[in-house]
Design goal:
The complex is a heterodimer. Chain A is mostly helical. Chain A contains 15 helices and two strands.
Amino acid sequence: MAHADEYHVHRAKILTPSFYVLLFFALLGFFFIGIRFVKGIGAVTNLSDGYPWGIWIVYDVATSTALACGGYAMAIIIYIMNRMTYHPLIRSALVTSLFGYMLAGLSVMVDIGRYFNAYSFFIPSRWQPNSVMFEVAVCVMAYNVVLMLELLPAILERFISSTNPKLKTFKKIAVKIYPVLDKALIFIIVLGITLPTMHQSSLGSMLIIAKSKVNPIWHTEFLPLLFVINALYIGYAVVIFESFSSSMAFNRPFESEVQRLSRVIPYITLVWLCIRFYDLFSRDQLGAAFAGDYPSMMFLAEMMLISGGSFILTWKQFRSSPRMLFISAVLLVIGGAWYRFNVYLIGFTPHGNWSYFPSLPEFFITLGLVAFEILGYMVLVKLFPIMPKLHTKKA
Amino acid sequence: MSDNSFFSGGINRREFLRLSAGLTAMMGLPYSMHTKVAEAAVADDRPPVIWLHFQECTGCSESLIRSGHPDTASLILDLISLDYHETLMIGSGHQAEESLHKSMKNNWGKYILVVEGAVPMAENGIYCKVAGKTAADSLKEVSEGAAAVICIGTCSSFGGVQAAAPNPTGAVSAASLITDKPVINIPGCPPSPYNLLATILYYLTLKKLPKLDKLNRPEFAYGRRIHEHCERRPHFDAGRFAEQFGDEGHSQGYCLYKLGCKGPVTHANCSVQRFNDVGVWPVSMGHPCIGCTEPDVMFHTSIYDKVQIHEVTPPDFYPNAKPSKRGKGADPLTTAVVGMFAGAGIGASAMMAKKLPQEGEDEEDKT
């Protein structure tokens, strides 16, 4: 299962200028997180009784887990659809997933008021299993573990191939664990596909109860389904985006698999758009969606980005152009994220004249976490065999 | 309780206690009184109730028999001893007259007289006769031996539609003809049956009349105005009104004041007690209050005329219907920084897109 020969360590300097820039923002973010724990949430955020969920939840949890769905989307196409040609892409997708999900968990810990009660989560007698939030929390936590296990072969391979005498004991352990893990991996992968399906839909379910607060353009019983499909196409778009970004940043040739991968996106977005419009039509909200006011504009922007991005991908000559492929991936990522922002924040109006815009420290915490995510990716691919092995004909 | 199980199966213990506790609360008595209320309701010496009908539509009786807690049979046989009621009793003719006189004789000075309907006085009262006697004569005769007189409905309390102009029968309220007995008015068209029931049980429990307002209405039911407890009140306070029937505001459930709602001048508990045991009342159905519990509102003003409002703004202790802006919105610095980073992200993506080659190899058909 491990296909160890498909990956290699990207050998390059770790301490590059971009490393320091990202480190600066990551540290700035952690500095403000420190302030949050010393002085409280009110000191760093604009959160209020009307808007208890700000960008930490809307971006770091609801959106960043979708951006981290590359691993999920790739696992579906590789293991469910049995397209092993895409296998070289999975490890880098898994790394993005792992960081995305770890940061989602971290953000929740920063966001919850009584973080010191969070240990209750590990005490089953204190569970509330009917809660959607509980489901999301369990899934996110379990998926983090699954992602780590899925990435473990890469780390073990590094130790096995190591010739450093200092790592001898690690090497011994790695040699022992590796075959066992290799056999168990398929079950972990199955879990790795089930869990995101569960919690990505639950991220949508969370807003179903807020019927009177979420704008009817976005509030629907279809929210869970829309969120799962949305996570899928964001996932594929992110894989494409990430593939080109890392190729550019690390000066590698383009990964040819993404071109074929991009073919599936228009089908997925088409299904999503059909459900979206059928739902608007059946609830008699098409008029509101095209009314031209602020929510309607936000809806139209979301639609333009998603349908524009997918429309590009329906043409073969565009799919074969790296530039157009990259542009469409960016459009789809922004459009998909825009949809989640619309549901969670822009279309969300609490009763009683509240307003919300993230404060500067709040924004810097999110920015710091994103910087930390990219930083971690950059370092990991330089330490462990994660990037696809270069195609010999191009190398 | 009694031996009427043949008719209704009686009222079971749970329902009975629920009813007693509910009525205790309604009368504004302390909760600890509910056992006393229950005892009074089952006492063997509970005085009988005699019910006379004059110029009316029987709507008040209809309302009474629509009470679901208790149902009609339990109500008239178990809870009150309804000895004479022209539309509900089984007997008729001489048999009915006999039961009336028997009950009056046996319970002289103890029975409660309930009067429904106005009394015509023109041409010696010939416009309403039962058993050959005019309404005025019957009332005089029966009220003589009554412990208290309860005038149910607007007709008997204030004259109602019969006394409205031009009033050809010279109708007057029954209450105005009784001078030597305590009179309790329970106006309404029709009133809630629980207002009558609560009044009777109050009297049975405490052997005295409930506190009355200046129009002899029990204060526990008629002490406050509809407007004070209306579910549409926040719309009034926020200035959201239905302008005409069927318009946008009307379908949104806005305040009905501009459609002629008399809630601001009408003392009644309809907005709280509601009707038919399912929690409905006219305003909840979208019709303005017509002020049926007031002597000079209904039948004296048009249903669709607006009433004078004396307290235009809500009291200070009401929650604000138009809350001020709360929460922290965008400040220029944050917006600028967020915009800067968003711009940088888009710019970087654009640069990357520019660097990427337009033409690529076609990999699709390869395997």
